[in-house]
Amino acid sequence: MRHRQAIAILVVALALLAAWRGALAWLGRAAEFGESNYQANRIRIERYLARPKAPEYVVLGSSLSGRLRPAAFAGSALSDVAVLGLDGSSPLLGIAVLAHRADLPRVALVETFAFNRGWKANDQLLLDGLAGPGMRLARADRLFAADQRPTSLLYSWFKERRDRAGSGSGPRTNEAVRVAGPAEVPGTAAAADLSRLMEDIRALRARGVEVVLVDVLAGEKRMPGERTGPDTAALVAREFGLRRIDLRREWFARGWEPGYTDLRHLDGPSADALARLLAESVVANK
Amino acid sequence: MLFNSWTFAVFLPVVFLLHHAGRRAAWQVGVLTAASFAFYGWERPSLLVLLVLSTAVNSFAAQALLSGTTPTGRRRAVLVGALAFNLGVLGFFKYGGMLARTFLPAALSARMPWLADIPLPVGISFYTFQGISLVMESWRAGAAGFPGLSAPHGVRQTVWFHARVWFFKAFFPQLIAGPIVKAGEFFHQIGAKRWADIDWDGAARKLVLGFFLKMVVADNLKEATATLHFPEFLELPRLNLLGLLYGFSLQILADFGGYSLIAQGLAKLFGYELPLNFNHPYLSASITEFWRRWHLSLSSWLREYLYIPLGGNRHGEARTYLNLFLVMFLGGLWHGAAWSYAAWGTAHGLLLAVERFTGMGRGRAADWPRWRRFLGIAVTFNVVSLLWLLFKLPEIGHVAAYLRCLVSNRGGIMPQPVFVIALFGLPVVLHHLWGAFSPSFPGSPAARQRLSTLAHGAMLAAILVNAGTPGDFIYFQF
Known about the structure:
The complex is a heterodimer.
Chain A: H1 4-27, H2 37-50, E1 57-61, H3 63-66, E2 81-85, H4 91-98, E3 107-111, H5 121-131, H6 133-140, H7 150-165, H8 171-180, H9 191-206, E4 210-215, H10 232-240, E5 243-246, H11 247-253, H12 268-284
Parallel strand pairs in A: 1-2, 1-3, 3-4, 4-5
Helix pairs in contact in A: 4-9
Chain B: H1 6-21, H2 25-41, H3 47-66, H4 72-103, H5 106-111, H6 124-141, H7 154-170, H8 172-175, H9 183-186, H10 200-224, H11 238-269, H12 287-290, H13 296-307, H14 317-335, H15 339-358, H16 370-392, H17 396-408, H18 415-437, H19 445-465
Helix pairs in contact in B: 1-2, 2-7, 3-4, 3-6, 3-7, 4-6, 10-11, 10-18, 10-19, 11-16, 11-17, 11-18, 13-14, 14-15, 15-16
């Protein structure tokens, strides 16, 4: 029986894992960004589920609201906020994640822009994963958490460095967005997704969660083939008599110039400003 | 059932222990056959109907072909019937929709809409080719049989004959995506396997590398290359388009090569050797060499059961070119029911023909001067990568659009996606460098083995903490 190398491989792997665990504990680092939509969303979802209690506010939406850093809300009315702005997803996934905790936030701030984005295979994969052994392991031991993955840490470092340097955004990107004008029509949901959205909002309200619709600031860029048309958010707001906060109007009314990291997403400083504007607007609209 | 699923993580040890719980070959073959059918039908038991039918037809055909008492005319009829059955089933399920869309008048196909929606049973291309291999080897061997399989006499032998054929067709490590095992490579291996004979070291190396390539490299690259999709790529900078192209090249190798290694490693746990499927293909300095390193089990199958029966290179130059072209066209079409796959195979066939004509494909590229070899590797990798577009983008118009964008899109770079592709592509590059330079690596064989152990340990750790988005293997769709 040839097994010496097999055992040696196992021993080396265990030793490396122990060393990695020690290094993580010593450095105290965690990735803020994932190198893919799936990993980025896992990070946000795992953090949300790991909270000792549900936050007072939760932002539900796509990568547009995912740019809002919880730290940017510090000292505002929304200081106890969690952001479930999930890359490549719609608020539907965020709402589904809320159901994985016994307690709920008091207010759900639902981004309207991604209503056109239906339920996707990646959403189902993440949701299935929540009950699977992989994410259970991550909850049991931080070594297996998404924000401790070596490549996510490396990517996060790389992205933070680039964001600090301000590259990615710049006069050319901002000019391209300005020329085309900000995206005007929030998404139009497909019939099946609309009925799911309606049901989800009804269920949240039935459990005492206040739902507020939020139009966030987005660049001009729409992916070719994206569904556009009637404003689903208006339909949903009318159906349930929901508050709707238009951050775009507020932003431009103040004469602010947004900066973009690509043709769609706000850069760091603009995203932080938008977070503060959201906090102000939530209070002002009451 | 997927190799990279939690269900399989339970399934494998149970089957392994059951297999080694008995010492007789009949018990072990029975356990593995039953487990293989459970593995295949786990999520959709209805798939088993076709596998059972295919196995039964090939099993009885092989028995008739190996029997010394079957008259020659009847043997020929059995051969033709079995081949027609195999190709007919494959043609109906895999190409029915495509042929109907292409050749049937619109009015007629509108009256038969189901033709466009024929479901593709997973693994059908692989197990059908194994069935054809069994039939062909039985036809060639006749009453003499071939190593490990001959005509049975009496009830016991007949039962054992069919049990082994069913095992050969269904053996779960290679059932869904190969390597395509030829009958002559497998039957002589069937017998009682002892716990003491298990090659744990070999199995561990294959499994760790295979799972690493799939779960850490391919599954992470999958999301990084997701924008290699129409229309998402239309506005990307040129360098990002190039990065996507290289990323997909590395991803498809890691995905399929990873699967093949897992299959080999699993087979080793049960005492079986499956053929090598990939041999550092991106070290190829010509397209001819590429096909001696990429999907070897398919190349070998096509050579043995298509190219040589068509006459190979025995009937003059013109016929050789025609045969090459035909084999590559059909090999391309084998991958999927879309004309882009046929175009992919045809393009490779044309390049093979050009290399043969110019003499580039002859001789050993290893003997070339170093500069020529490096140049050859770079050119071949770029050509192969460009041709993968036909794999990834099923509409030929989309491929043309990608090529246009590659030339005319804006300059600059979006660095983050390229960083991710480079990060996860690096292990494949290192794997190739190891393949190229390990024979001349300084130090003793023991030092090389220590380095290999360290690398495998690191890969195992990475599988546990750095796996990507779980998902199917690319070749499952073929």
